Amino acid sequence: MFLDMKSSTTIAENLGHVRYFEMLKEYFFDLSVAVIDYAGTIYQYAGDEMIVSWKRKDGLKNNNCIECFFAMKSALEQQAEKYNRKFGILPAFKAGLHFGMVTAGEIGSLKKEIIFTGDVLNTSARIQGLCNHFDADLLVSEDLAKILHLPAIYEMRSVGENLLKGRSKPMEIFSISASQI
């Protein structure tokens, strides 16, 4: 899951870099509880983006990958007063999900790091990048949509086929929303 804060540039400009960083620390802390609760792993932070991964069975079990997103949303809403008081804004986010194989390994000589590579990362990022275009908070790939077993509180609808950058064939993308959170 590639999870990206909405309007982060505007927020950073309004808060200034020090207060923005303080907000980011609290934001990531508040979102992290859901990652733990729904068996995810935070792979990486990239600016205002959080990249969360699951082993396939853990992400699909009880729809953990979807439930995590909505638990994160709920966690921020429960902290609305704190964010509004301290920063004058309640941050929001959007996310893209896809699944597939990744290769993990260590790279670097001066600074070593474990990285994931594979099409699934690029595809997840491209899907998340479509959220604004489709006015959606959560978009998932057709591949993932086909294997999810969502309860009735969720509505999944196709936003159409999209040719994602770097891919040769279009992929159908689905939005998922909750009738109650």
UniProtKB/TrEMBL annotation:
The keyword Ribonucleoprotein does not apply. It is an enzyme of class 4 (lyase). Its EC number is 4.6.1.1. GO terms for molecular function: adenylate cyclase activity. Gene3D superfamilies: Nucleotide cyclase (3.30.70.1230). Residues 1-128 form the Guanylate cyclase domain. InterPro entries: A/G_cyclase, Adenylyl/Guanylyl_Cyclase_3/4, Nucleotide_cyclase. Keywords: Lyase. This is Adenylate cyclase 1. It comes from Dyadobacter linearis. The lineage of its organism: Bacteria, Pseudomonadati, Bacteroidota, Cytophagia, Cytophagales. The gene is cyaA.
